[in-house]
Write a structure and sequence with these properties.
This protein is an all-alpha fold and about 100 residues long. It has four helices and no strands. Helix 1 runs antiparallel to helix 2.
């Protein structure tokens, strides 16, 4: 299900659309990673961090610094696997919906 910017999912619930977008993007990347035949050194890291992102999305509004940290770890782990680049970009876009972390 592709949505253009500004459209919201009609789910009949009070779920934050940003959380829904994150949940969908993470789920798609996890499926593609699971189906990807090649092994690479940091695959376990990517799988662990995607599981953490999925848990954050399931728990409601995630902590932005933790969300961004997980994104960086996933990107570092699978960033060179071009077959996964589209779904990784989707996860990045979903994380960016939450805005910047608060300045210290």
């Amino acid at each position: 299900m592709l949505r253009s910017l500004g459209q919201r999912a009609v789910t009949g619930s009070d779920e934050d659309p940003r959380v829904a977008e994150l949940r969908i993007a993470v789920s798609r990347l996890r499926r593609e990673l699971a189906a990807h035949p090649a092994e690479f050194p940091d695959r376990g890291i990517a799988e662990d961090e995607l599981a953490a992102l999925a848990a954050m999305a399931a728990g409601g509004i995630p902590e932005i610094p933790r969300l961004r940290r997980s994104l960086l770890l996933v990107a570092g782990a699978i960033g060179s696997v071009s077959a996964l680049s589209t779904r990784l970009a989707d996860v990045r876009s979903a994380v960016e919906l939450f805005g910047e972390p608060p300045r210290r």
